[in-house]
């Protein structure tokens, strides 16, 4: 069997910004609005991680994901659901104990924006496995196409916090590239409402 590259075979957004804005208005005791949220407002609510962003939901499926990489993602459990193809012997006809961790699975997820931000913090870290980071980057590439504001706040832990909290730093937090990434993340937010 020829190894096939990991890919995202389906990707769907399941929300609209008007609902997010109306939920935000509800939390501060305001009536529903009529104005569509602008880029600046979207960025501010995503950076603040206020609860209405949990209405921003995406569904995707990885194909040809190595089982051991799938396990890295299954460790994320808040704001995300995982559906991973089985390796049960009674379902596959294969001896489960003989299947290597490098065997591929299908892994489907349903996740909200807050989960995506958190997963990015861990899986974009340079201490994460390169294979896991590459699989996550495929999802972020899809997000960037439709929701650039969300993509812009999906950053590694060091950028999110402004410093590296790891026991053993990779050194990125002391580079000019880090300072550039941090400035972009913290950048001026347009005030277009």
Task: Tell me what you see in this structure.
By secondary structure, the protein is α+β, with helices and mostly antiparallel strands. The protein has 2 domains: about 150 residues, Gyrase A, domain 2 (2-Layer Sandwich); about 35 residues, no CATH class. The protein is built from 9 helices and 4 strands; from the N terminus they run E-H-H-E-H-E-H-E-H-H-H-H-H. It has a 4-stranded antiparallel beta sheet with strand order 1-2-4-3. The longest helix is centred in the C-terminal third of the chain and has 17 residues.
CATH first level of the largest domain: Alpha Beta
Principal-axis shape equals globular
Characterize the biggest β-sheet. Answer: 4 strands, antiparallel
β-strand number: 4
Question: What is the CATH architecture annotation of the largest domain?
Answer: 2-Layer Sandwich
How many helical stretches? 9
- Fraction of residues in helices? 40-55%
Radius of gyration: 19 Å
- Average of per-residue pLDDT values: 94
Structural class: alpha+beta
What strand line-up does the widest sheet have? 1-2-4-3
CATH topology of the largest domain: Gyrase A, domain 2
Query: Distance between termini?
Result: 53 Å
Percent of residues in beta strands? Answer: 15-25%
